[in-house]
Every structure is written in C-alpha cells, then in structure tokens.
C-alpha cells in the first residue's frame, strides 16, 4: 500500500495540461434550477404519436388504405424536425398528391454574401453537458428510442457528407433529474457521424492526423450543453429558409510548433423548441451548410435558400445530388410496397435508414419499419 | 468568466473571486472530492476548504491553470481527510483505487534503484504524453479524478468490463515502463 500511495502522490503532480485535457468536455457549472415540466407532456405526446405511426401498418408491412392521417401524426411524432416558417410545397396536403416526388436536381441556393461566420476565440471549456450537484440531481442515459420519442427524430440528418457513417451507433441522450421532484432539468441528445470508429465506438482518424473527421449533432429541450466554441459578442446569424442559424468557426492549432491547423465549425439554431448544435471537425463550411440545411429543410422545399434574399452576381448554387448521391432528401427512394402518399418526414427517415443500413452505417430505429 | 479575470479578483482581494470560482469550478471540485469521499458533507467541506486555500494562496501564487490548480488542492484535502477517517474506519472507498495502482508496481527482481516521487512524476508525464489521447484521458480521469469505472464507462458509452480491461492494460503498460527504466517504488 505504501508503494501505491507513492504512485498516487506522483500522479497527483502530473502535468496540468493532462488534467485540463481530461476535464475538457466536462462541465463546470453550479446547479441550474431551470424546471422543465413540459418534457412530460412531450413524452406523452410523442408516445401517442409513435403508436399512431406504428399502428397503421400490419406486421407484414401492408400499407393502410388511408395514409393521410398517418402522415400528419407521424410527422409530428417521429419525423424529422419541422418548422412553421419553412415553406411547404403547395401540393403536400392534397390527397393523392405525391409530396415527395423529388426534383430532378435537388438544390439549395447559397447567397454567400449573406452567410455570416463568426470567428470564435477558441474552444469552450465546457463543450459537453453541464454538471449538477449529484447530491440533489441524478443522471440517466437514454437510448435511441427515447431520443426519438422526446426530440421527434433520431438525429440523423438527411444529408451526410460522403465517407461519413454513424458507425452502427444510434442516438443517445444524457438526462439530469432533480431527485426531490423527479423533474428533468437538463438534457442533451447527441449523434455522431465520422469517417472511422475505434473498437470502443469512439471516433478515430483514418489518416495521418490524429484528429477524426466528421460531425456531431446535439439537441436539447431544456438547456443541457454549452457551445463547443467560445461565444462571440454580437454574433451574426445566417438565414436558413427563415430559420436563424449562428455559424461559428475556429482554427485549432496542432503539430510540434502549432504550425498546422484544422477547422471546427458549429451551427447553432432552434427548431420547434429544440436547440441544436452541429459541430463539424475537419469539414468544409459548405458541407456544414448542407448538413444544416438538410436538418432545417423538412418538409423538403425546392426553394430553400441560405443567406440573405436577393441574388447577387457571386451567388453559388449547389447541386446536392452531386456530392453524395442517394443521401439527400431529394434523392430518396420510397421502399418497395410503400404507399406513394407516405408522409415526407417519415418516408425520409425510412429512406435514410434504408440507405444507410445498406451501407452498414446506422442501426435501424425500432419505430421505423423498413420494407425488405 | 475567464481564469485570468478570476485570478485578478483574488489579487484585488475582491470576495467575488470565491463566488466566481464556485460558479466555474464548484461542480468540478465537488466531483473530485466525492470520488474520494463518499460522504457528501465531507466532500462539500473539502470544497469549501479549497476556496479558503485559494483565497489565502492567491496571491502570491498565480496559477497558470486555475482548474488544475484547484483540482489538485481539493484532491489533496480530500485524500488527507480520507486518510484521517480511514484510520477511524469510517469508509474505505479509496482503497479500491490504491489496490488498482498496485498493478503498476514494478517487480522487485528488475529493480535497480528506488525512484524519487518527483522523478516518478516525470516518468509518468512522459508515459502519458506517449499514450493515445483517449487512453490518457481515461487514465487521468480514473487515477487523478478518481472517477468510478462505471461512470467512465457510461461517459465513453462502452461497457464497464471493457473500461476495466482498458484500465488494466494501461496499468500493466505503466508497470512495464517503470521496469524497463529499472525503477522500484
């Protein structure tokens, strides 16, 4: 025991940088007293919605005769997020219409002069979950099913840059409850897409630089995380089809003399009462914009525009079908045997699940039935 | 508030320094203390003592890394309290950590000389620096923060068994490193 104590004491004095490195991503905040009673209502609503989605199909996967009602409920309950201020294509609500018929070349338009990227001063020390006093609060972990029920989807964006996968891992969430009342006071759901994963499921680099390439999408309803990057005073926002998105950037130095850098971009926005942060590492700004647009542009709109309105000479039009065929909403296919009127969000999710499953990327969500 | 600003408050003898320290590092310090002392009241007392130590020590001290500095202080205070209470058989949570560290102790057969504590720290620093980041973070969180294996497994989203296996492998690697250098403890 004497030797172990000596070792323990020596470990006590290890270099500060190792201590700080280990705390990065940990939290540093005093108890937050924010109550969040609405979550219970959210869970109930989502649970009802989930039943509504699952019920209309028989176990064999036969579509019901009247899918319209299913579409509406399904979109609310388990579909990807939608916003009231996102334009809906006029024929979406018409019985018998085909709301998902994709345009030949799905595009978004980026007005680069209207894209504001805030330069951050550095990485936030508390990029992860806030920490609460364990005496008064308890922590629990949710799997993908609970995430889908609470947040409305499984955090798999419609657009995922080529070469990235979910590594067979679904969405998860960390939830803090006040012990006395049992109320949830903090929450964070997350899901990552990376070029490679280690045996333990953590992202890893697939090239010479020991920094993984990919992105994480995080969501919270009650306030559960701090921004990855230090906030910028008077940060400017970028309009994504009517949704204000705060784009931020920081170049992280690395290498023997900090001679090299890699980029971290974040996109922060709120949809339907859920705060999101997309944190991209070693991805180009254009990819970050595409990912963000694919999360916000649900139901799919051909007129989706990023940046201020009013075309200027240097506008850039990006053909999303070029970069990652088969992954963007407009390229989705409807699983065989599926009714043509299946709701956009649900069909989108199923299409994504089907596509990515085929590539070994993401686990199937139990609420999503995929026709074989 | 940035660390430099908090330290500035200490230097100006502004009592808001304590409040800002508690706001930024209170939970961090409390978790470290709780990892060593399972009695919450004792852990909270250690954190309060840490604030007092900071108030008395800064200035003249001016920590480069306030978080690490505070963590080290609370760790020492908590360990001393654990030692004191351990003698009184109040609890024995720390024993598990020390038992694990015994895996790192070099075999006496390979020993050339006993290593000094400061020198041992340098060897551990060099060994940590050579580890992949995820292994380094895991080792530090277990043996510096004192976090439980189950908690580390949950954070890493891997099984407790896999986490324990990784930690065991790391302890054996440290032992091998010390033996190669010909050190004993």
Binned strand content of chain A: 15-25%
Give the end-to-end Cα distance of chain A, rounded to a whole number of Å.
61 Å
Helix content of chain A: 10-25%
How many β-strand stretches of chain A? 12
Rg of chain A is: 22 Å
So what's the oligomer here? heterodimer
Q: CATH class of the largest domain in chain B, anyone?
A: Mainly Alpha
CA-based shape of chain B:
globular
Q: What is the total number of structural domains of chain A?
A: 1
Written overview of the protein:
The complex is a heterodimer of chains A (372) and B (185). In chain A, the strands form two sheets. In chain A, strands 2, 3, 4, 5, 6, 7, 8, 9 and 10 form a nine-stranded mixed sheet that branches. Chain A has a three-stranded mixed sheet with strand order 11-1-12. Chain A is α+β, with helices and mostly antiparallel strands and 372 residues long. Chain A has eight helices and twelve strands. In chain A, 23% of the residues lie in helices and 21% in strands. The longest helix of chain A has 17 residues, at 38-54. In chain A, helix 3 crosses helix 5. Chain A has helices at residues 2-12, 16-23, 38-54, 67-77, 144-151, 285-296, 320-323, 344-358; strands spanning 107-110, 117-119, 137-142, 172-178, 184-194, 214-220, 238-240, 243-254, 260-271, 274-281, 305-306, 316-319. Chain A has one domain (2-358). By secondary structure, chain B is an all-alpha fold. Chain B has two domains: 3-91, Orthogonal Bundle (Rna Polymerase Sigma Factor, Chain: A); 98-184, Orthogonal Bundle (Arc Repressor Mutant, subunit A), CATH 1.10.10. Chain B has nine helices and two strands. The longest helix of chain B is centred in the middle third of the chain and has 22 residues, at 66-87. The mean pLDDT of chain B is 82. Classes of the chains: A alpha+beta (372), B mainly alpha (185). At the A-B interface, helix 1 and helix 2 of A face helix 2, helix 4, helix 5, helix 6 and helix 7 of B.
């Amino acid at each position: 025991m004497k030797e172990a104590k000596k070792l323990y004491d020596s470990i006590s004095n290890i270099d500060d940088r190792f201590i700080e490195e280990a705390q990065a991503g940990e939290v540093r905040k005093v108890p937050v007293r924010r109550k969040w009673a609405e979550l219970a209502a959210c869970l109930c609503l989502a649970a009802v919605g989930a039943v509504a989605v699952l019920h209309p199909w028989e176990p064999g996967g036969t579509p019901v005769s009247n899918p319209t009602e299913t579409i509406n409920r399904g979109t609310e309950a388990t579909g990807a997020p939608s916003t009231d201020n996102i334009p809906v294509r006029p024929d979406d609500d018409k019985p018998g219409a085909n709301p998902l018929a994709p345009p030949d070349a799905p595009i978004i338009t980026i007005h680069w002069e209207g894209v504001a990227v805030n330069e951050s001063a550095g990485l936030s020390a508390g990029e992860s979950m806030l920490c609460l006093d364990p005496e008064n609060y308890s922590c629990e972990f949710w799997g993908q099913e609970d995430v889908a029920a609470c947040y409305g989807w499984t955090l798999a964006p419609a657009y995922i840059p080529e070469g990235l996968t979910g590594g067979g891992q679904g969405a998860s969430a960390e939830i803090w409850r006040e012990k006395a009342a049992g109320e949830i006071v903090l929450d964070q759901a997350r899901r990552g897409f990376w070029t490679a994963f280690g045996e333990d499921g953590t992202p890893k680099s697939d090239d010479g630089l020991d920094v993984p390439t990919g992105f994480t999408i995080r969501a919270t309803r009650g306030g559960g995380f701090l921004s990855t990057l230090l906030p910028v005073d008077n940060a400017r926002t970028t309009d994504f089809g009517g949704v204000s998105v705060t784009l931020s950037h920081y170049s992280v130095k690395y290498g023997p003399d900090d001679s090299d850098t890699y980029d971290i971009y974040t996109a922060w926005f709120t949809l339907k009462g859920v705060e999101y942060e997309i944190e991209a590492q070693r991805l180009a700004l254009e990819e970050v914009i595409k990912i963000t647009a694919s999360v916000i542009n649900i139901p799919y709109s051909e007129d989706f525009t990023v940046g201020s309105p009013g075309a200027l000479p240097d506008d850039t039009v990006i053909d999303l079908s070029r970069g990652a065929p088969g992954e963007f909403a407009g390229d989705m296919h409807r699983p065989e045997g599926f009714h043509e009127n299946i709701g956009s969000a649900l069909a989108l999710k199923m299409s994504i699940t089907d596509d990515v499953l085929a590539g070994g990327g993401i686990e199937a969500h139990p609420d999503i039935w995929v026709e074989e | 508030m940035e660390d430099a600003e908090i330290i500035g408050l200490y230097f100006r003898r502004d009592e808001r320094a304590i409040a800002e320290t508690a706001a930024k590092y209170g939970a961090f310090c409390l978790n470290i203390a709780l990892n060593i002392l399972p009695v919450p009241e004792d852990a909270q007392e250690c954190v309060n003592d840490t604030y007092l130590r900071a108030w008395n020590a800064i200035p003249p001290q001016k920590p480069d890394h306030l978080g690490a500095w505070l963590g080290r202080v609370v760790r020492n205070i908590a360990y001393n309290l654990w030692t004191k209470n351990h003698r009184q058989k109040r609890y024995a949570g720390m024993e598990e950590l020390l038992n694990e560290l015994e895996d790192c102790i070099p075999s006496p057969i390979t020993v050339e000389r006993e290593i000094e504590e400061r020198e041992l720290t340098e060897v551990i620093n060099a060994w940590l620096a050579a580890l992949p980041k995820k292994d380094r973070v895991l080792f530090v969180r277990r043996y510096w923060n004192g976090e439980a294996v189950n908690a580390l497994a949950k954070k890493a989203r891997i099984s407790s068994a896999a986490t324990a296996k990784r930690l065991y492998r790391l302890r054996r690697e440290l032992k091998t490193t010390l033996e190669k250098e010909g050190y004993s403890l």
